[in-house]
UniProtKB/TrEMBL annotation:
GO biological process: DNA topological change
Similarity comment text for this entry: Belongs to the type IB topoisomerase family.
Catalytic reaction equation(s): ATP-independent breakage of single-stranded DNA, followed by passage and rejoining
GO molecular function: DNA binding; DNA topoisomerase type I (single strand cut, ATP-independent) activity
SUPFAM superfamilies associated with the record: DNA breaking-rejoining enzymes, DNA topoisomerase I domain
Keywords noted in UniProt: DNA-binding, Isomerase, Topoisomerase
DNA topoisomerase IB N-terminal domain residues: 42-90
Domain DNA topoisomerase I catalytic core eukaryotic-type: 103-307
Keyword Plastid: no
Organism: Siccirubricoccus deserti
Record's protein name: DNA topoisomerase
Lineage, broadest ranks: Bacteria, Pseudomonadati, Pseudomonadota, Alphaproteobacteria, Acetobacterales
Origin superkingdom: Bacteria
Length: 387
């Protein structure tokens, strides 16, 4: 994809404004920073000007960052209010970051605002995916639409060429022919995913089975390929999938958004099964159990699932005792949501009310009642491939 300079500049301006609003300084590790040098079993730290760091508060801040000893090319922000506090390279050469706690809060808030935008985009995405999967032959749009459909149906990660090459761990765009068996209208996926976890899923879908079988008839080992305008074969990559999603959604949507949205809705459905807890301890036990169920579906650890894939409003509402459920979603929740499922429309309504309530409550001293969430439908609807 070509570099979008305008979008990049806009993103930097937005980040600067967000940092300023959080009382932080927007920084870059291209500017001079504090360096780290190994000395015996420990480290010494050098000022950008070259002198040793002796200030006790600065040394305490550096220790609190808990920068792994294995990191190389370590850069530490000389300003305690920098939005980035440190960067470095891990043992695999990947760039890693340590952020200021307030910046993490800003970033997380933006991420969950984005989830609401994604939910609003889902009807248009699903309509376009359905149309593209009906195209004749095996053009790129048809194969990309099939991958997006599978992102939702199975919750398999989109995949990364580096992980496939270095770790032999796979996602949808890096699957090989051997990872999928098609038997009639049923697909069976068996492969090693991220962190070495084995995925075994079954999916009954006549149309997808037909498309995947056509992909398997193409030469080569990569499962998802298509014919370009010249008749040549091209592999589908995660970048292709994300570009396709941005095009059909008309906004910045990525493959990961499907897993984050699914994790949030599945958490609401899991919590639906519990009676209202009679104590905070019981509520937290139920919360842990629900998160474990969602984590098992997503193939994550519970800690990662809670931090990265479930909107905190769902968990907060349950702990507050304000998460209520009805057999069916209220009719008004379906208005304007098109192809959103009833339980998705209910969760979206909760997030919108929660967002409005939090913004209205900013600066208010009195407690604001939390909205109830009316959620319906069966657990397996999202990511209905069986693990």
């Amino acid at each position: 994809m070509p570099f979008d300079e305008g979008a990049a500049v806009s993103a930097i301006i937005d980040a600067r404004e967000a940092a300023s609003e959080a009382g932080l300084r927007y920084v870059s590790d291209e500017a001079p920073g504090i360096g780290r040098r190994r000395v015996g079993k420990g480290f010494s730290y050098r000022q950008p000007q070259g002198g040793p760091v002796r200030d006790a508060a600065t040394l305490r801040r550096i220790r609190a960052l808990a920068i792994p000893p294995a990191w190389t090319q370590v850069w530490i922000c000389p300003h305690p209010e920098g939005h980035i506090q440190a960067t470095g390279r891990d043992q695999k050469g990947r760039k890693q970051y340590r952020y200021h706690p307030r910046w993490r809060e800003v970033r997380d808030a933006a991420k969950y605002d984005h989830m609401v935008e994604f939910a609003h985009s889902l009807p248009a995405i699903r309509a376009r995916v359905d149309a593209d999967m009906r195209r004749p032959g095996l053009p790129g749009e048809k194969v990309l639409a099939t991958v997006v459909h599978l992102l939702e149906a199975t919750l398999i990660r989109v995949g990364n060429d580096d992980y496939a090459r270095q770790n032999q761990s796979y996602g949808l765009t890096t699957l090989r022919h051997r990872h999928v068996a098609v038997e009639g209208t049923t697909l069976r996926f068996t492969f090693k995913g991220k962190s070495g976890k084995t995925w075994q899923l079954g999916l009954a879908d006549r149309r997808v089975a037909r498309i995947v079988r056509a992909c398997q008839d193409l030469p080569g080992q990569e499962l998802f390929q298509y014919r370009d305008a010249e008749g040549g074969l091209r592999d589908v990559t995660s970048a292709d999938v994300n570009a396709y999603l941005r095009e059909i959604a008309g906004r910045d949507v990525t493959a990961k958004d499907f897993r984050t949205w699914a994790g949030t809705v599945l958490a609401a459905l899991a919590l639906r099964e519990y009676q209202r807890a009679d104590s905070q301890a019981a509520a937290k036990r139920n919360l842990r159990a629900a998160i474990e169920r969602v984590a098992a579906r997503l193939g994550n650890t519970p800690a990662i699932c809670r931090t990265c894939y479930i909107h905190p409003a769902i968990l907060d509402c349950y702990l507050d005792g304000a998460l209520a459920f009805e057999v069916e979603a209220e009719p008004e929740l379906r208005d304007g949501t098109g192809r959103l499922r009833p339980e998705e429309a209910a969760v979206l309504a909760l997030l919108l009310e929660r967002l409005r309530g939090d913004r209205a409550a900013a600066g208010m001293t009195s407690a604001t009642p939390r909205p109830a969430c009316h959620v319906a439908a069966a657990w397996p609807r999202l990511g209905h491939g069986l693990r």
